[in-house]
Write a structure and sequence with these properties.
Elements: E1 3-4, E2 8-13, H1 17-28, E3 33-36, H2 53-58, E4 71-74, E5 82-83, H3 99-102, H4 112-115, H5 117-125, H6 143-157, H7 183-194, E6 200-201, E7 211-212, E8 218-219, H8 245-251, E9 255-258, E10 261-269, E11 272-280, E12 286-296, H9 300-309, E13 327-330, E14 338-341, E15 357-360, E16 379-384, H10 404-414, E17 418-425, E18 434-442, E19 448-453, H11 458-478, E20 482-485, E21 503-505, E22 529-531, H12 546-566
Parallel strand pairs: 1-12, 2-3, 2-12, 3-9, 4-19, 12-22
Antiparallel strand pairs: 4-5, 6-15, 7-8, 10-11, 11-12, 13-21, 14-17, 14-20, 15-16, 16-17, 18-19
Helix pairs in contact: 1-8, 1-12, 6-12, 7-11
Length: about 575
Amino acid sequence: MVKKLPKTDVVIVGVGWGGGIIASELTKQGLNVVGLEKGQERETEDYYMAHDELRYAIRYELMSDLSKETLTFRGNEKMRALPMRQYGSFLLGDGVGGAGVHWNGQTFRFLPYDFEIRTRTIERYGKDKIPADMTIQDWGITYDEIEPYYDKFEKMAGISGEENPLGGKRSNKYPTKPMLHSPQMKMFKQATESLNYHPYTIPSANLSENYTNPDGISRAACQYCAFCERFGCEYGAKADPVVTVIPIAKNTGKFDLRTHSWVRRVLHKDGKATGVLYTDVTTGEEIEQPADMVVLTSYVFNNVKLLLNSEIGRPYNPSTGRGVIGKNYAYQIIKGSATGFFEDKKFNNFAGAGSLGMVIDDFNGDNFDHSDVNFLHGGYLSLTQTGKRPIQSNPIPADSPTWGKEFKQNSMKYINKTLSIGAMGASLPFKQHYLDLDPMYKDAFGDPLIRMTYDFKDQDRELAKFTATKAKEILKEMGADRIDAMEELGPYEINTYQTTHNTGGVIMGGDPETSAVNNYSQMWDMDNLFVVGASSFPHNSGYNPTDTVGALAYRAAEGIVKYSKNGGQLA
């Protein structure tokens, strides 16, 4: 029998960056909020003495258990989708804080071009520049409109950085100074300036100095220990929800955080969300939590899965191009990179921080003329020093043997004599790329898994080759004796790690026919249901997504407060 609890003002599904920001902002305005998280609670103390590469980076201590919930994957509709049974291409976080605990901290703003990508592309190049099956669309919000929310997120998180010379205008400087520059970063800066590019320090959620944010949360500066990605930060120097927004929500006395709570359905009646149904995984008890407003703030795949299993919104149909739930799945194109080998130089590559590095945006967005290239958008090129840990780092020339005496010799020779230029390329949506429910495979509770249909397109292959060429150019200018770079981008592989930057499926826009939510992340089809996170991105930019997730969460929080007072559609 389902246990029914007293109604609350707001119930939040997933307590990561989106959920933490929503909880903080709403409770400060006096609303009662229940936060449901399927994983465990975490605190900074959990990471004391936790520099264990095997436990966290190889065995995925902070990630979801794929035996209980995963997704299925296929490259196209003619293939049979199969479950992802081990981690590879991306990592799905688990527990309070979500991916905000194990991220690197690279905190870029999207470009003004991103938010009006279709309009600006047509204005500059004409409609014929857009492939027939590419489904790019404007976001229903402009950079100028979202800029104040970027500023709010960056002040809360204490982002350390300097102005992007090719980015959108800022209302304020970053709240803390840029990270320190290592010798490798100085080499990149000198080389890219000599090539007439515009380098700047990567904006970082790893604090460059001690900082107290507008909410009164004080955190210590980064120690450059290089255990950021896949790890929690024992210093609290890396901004994550556990050390920033969640404590604020708790201190109001209006936030009820419930862990081990697996949400299975959004309940609704007569066009309104009425609450959620969840299972307490410690007891197996089914519980109904009624609420005046429901906010989905879980990861991309789970937001889509909940809507589809709850029969909310119009599922996307790739044959007709109609429907919106599951539409415009996108990923990230990072294969266009290169590695340089230096015979007479040695670097301390083991040191660093998750967001330590230099970057150029000369080939990102529409910052260069695309008339003579066979792709749209672009990506940044960066040299990052995130820390080369011994198990996962073994840089050797591409033509080296992968075992034996020469393999060992090259491993020892080049361990601290290589530098890589990485590319973070935009992923643009296509009609054939989408998320839906798998007709065969189910999770631990018998609910259908999400099925991902995705593969690289000519757009991605051309972009990757282009950025690889530019990466080689920079490494040559830096004095590399040998350079290995990507030659051709093969099919997408779900078993090889790339990024955890999945986007789309519940996209935003200005038209209910082509989008699922408005620019307050409010569902067009159900006005007291908000869906917040990277699932609302109509495409993925040539950047890490977290700054935009945070900005949209602050805007959504503002919208939810307005809705609580007046009701109705906000945009």
